[in-house]
User: What shape does this take?
Amino acid sequence: MGQALFIVWRESIEALLVIGILWAWLRMRGELARGRWYLAAGAAAGLLLAGALAVAMTVVQDELAGAVLEYFQAGMVLLAAALITHMVLWMRRHGRAMRQQLHAGAAAAFDRAGAFGIAVLVAIAVAREGAETAIFLYGLSFNAGSELWQGAVLGVVLALLTVMVLARGLRLFSYAVFFRASSVLLLLLACGLLVSGVERLIGLEMLPALVDPLWDSTFLLDDAAGPGNVLATFAGYRARPSLVLLLLVAAYWLFVLWPRHPASATVRAHD
Assistant: This one.
C-alpha cells in the first residue's frame, strides 16, 4: 500500500503541475475562459488513454499462462524499474527548464490549432504520467495485496492536498526540495523493483545466480520480518543476496549516481 501511495502521489503531482503551468499560461494570454474547458477535456482524454493501457495489460495477462506469464511479469517489473529511473534522471536534467518548455510547447500548439492544441498537449502529458503510473502499479501488484488500490486512491488525494500546500506555502517549502527528496525515494523503489525482476529471471534460469547466497546477514537484519521486511519491500534489501544480484544492484547505483550536467534552458519562451 505504501509503495502504491507514494508512486501515485508523485505522478499525480507531476500531472497537476503540468496542468497548473498551462492554466497559468492561458490566464496570462487572456484565454482561460475558453481554454479551461479544453484543459479539462485534455486531462480526461489522457486519463482514458492511461486506463486503456491498464486494461490492455490486464487482458494480456489473462491470456497468458505458465512460463510465458512469468516472463511477461518479470519483464513488466523491470520495465517499471527502468521507467522510474528514466523519469528521475529526466527530471534531474530537464526539471529547471520544464516551465519554459511547456510554455513554448503551449504557444506552438495554440498557434497551430487554437485551444484544441492545448487539449492535445494536456492529453499527451496526462496520458504519459498515467501510463507510467499504470505500469508502476502493475509491477507492484505482484508483491502487493488488495491494499494496492487503496494506496492509489490515497495517493491521488494526498497529491491534491500537497499541491494546495505547495501553491500556498512556497516560502516554506519549494518544488525543488520536494522533487529532490521524492526522487531519492523513487530511486530506492526502482532498485526494489529491479531486485524483484532479477530474482524472477534467476528463478526462470535466464540469469545465473553465480554464488547464492553470497553472505547471510539474517541475524543482523532479517528481510522476512520487521524493519528488514520494510526495507526489502521498498528498496530491495536482501539478507542472503546472490552474487549476480549484488553486481546488478551495484551497476544500477553506479549508473544513477554518475554525474550528469543539467540541460541548459535554451528554449526560447514565446510568452
Q: What stands out?
A: Residues 266-271 have pLDDT under 50 and may be disordered.
